[in-house]
Design brief:
Blueprint (H helix, E strand, L loop, with lengths): L2 E6 L26 E11 L3 E11 L11 E6 L26 E7 L5 E2 L3 E8 L6 E2 L3 E2 L2 E2 L6 E10 L9 E3 L5 H4 L3 E6 L12 E3 L10 E5 L2 E4 L14 E3 L3 E8 L1
Parallel strand pairs: 7-8
Antiparallel strand pairs: 1-18, 2-11, 3-7, 3-9, 3-18, 4-5, 4-11, 6-7, 10-11, 12-13, 13-16, 14-17, 15-16
Length: 255
């Protein structure tokens, strides 16, 4: 018997920036029972594994911590190699059509803050009796992974229980011209980028459904550095830079 952690950050834009911010810059707030993120596949060792706890790091809005909401986590598996159908469009109601036979577990993380910091929140839950956010957490088992021998694939989805939004007000300081610059940095202003982005995050430009190439490798107050040069994304001065991965999740397992 042992313990292990699985960390992931779901892409909440996934090619459609309007899921987080309207093209004109208006907020696109999530509502109660909206899909927070669609299925994200994780691989864990084969066999039954019990969720012992979860830690959630959730960004604020415009660099400021926002009101915390309960988050419903849903777990699913493939059936005969077929992944579960979509939970629904992110930032819209969870239609979840045809998913019933795929579901293998669920629980809700209470909005009580473990750590409330200036620009983001840390939420969590653990197995065991209340108080201390104790929950009866599920035992999960999925189908064998198609990419890793000795592992199984579990799908994780999220549903929000109240209004949240993930606008940033981190703005490009100067036009982004991919064809001319071929740079791997974006100079920014307004909100301190360190309040919004972290190493490993994915970024988009508001109104452009193509991801800025690569992942973020360095975050400074007024500059973002990426793992790849930008050859595809152009943007005007003062356009908002969006974080596609504003939620970081760690699942704590016992096998």
């Amino acid at each position: 018997m042992g313990y292990f952690n699985v960390k992931f950050r779901p892409d909440m834009i996934n090619g459609d920036t309007t899921q987080l911010v309207a093209d004109n810059g208006d907020q696109a707030a999530f509502a109660t029972n909206d899909v927070l993120f669609d299925w994200h596949a994780i691989d864990i060792p084969k066999g039954s594994a019990r969720v012992q706890g979860i830690t959630v790091v959730m960004n604020g809005s415009n660099g400021n911590r926002q009101s915390e909401r309960d988050i419903q986590f849903v777990f699913a598996k493939s059936i005969n190699g077929v992944a579960p159908p979509t939970l629904g469009v992110v930032n819209a109601t969870a239609s979840a059509l045809g998913t019933q036979n795929h579901i293998i577990g669920a629980f809700t993380v209470d909005s009580s803050v473990i750590t409330g910091l200036d620009s983001y929140s840390v939420l969590g839950a653990c197995a065991g009796p209340a108080p201390a956010n104790g929950l009866h957490l599920p035992v999960l088992e999925g189908e064998e992974s198609t990419t890793q021998k000795g592992f199984q694939t579990i799908y994780v989805g999220g549903i929000i229980s109240g209004a949240v939004n993930f606008d940033t007000n981190v703005l490009a300081n100067g036009a982004i011209d991919a064809s001319a610059d071929l740079a791997n940095t974006i100079v920014v202003d307004q909100v301190d980028a360190r309040k919004v982005f972290a190493v490993g995050d994915l970024a988009y430009v508001r109104g452009t459904d193509t991801q800025v190439p690569g992942v973020i490798t360095k975050v400074e107050q007024l500059k973002l550095t990426f793992s790849e040069t930008n050859s595809t994304v152009d943007a005007a001065d003062n356009i908002e830079i969006l974080n596609a991965t504003p939620i970081k999740i760690t699942l704590h397992f016992q096998d």
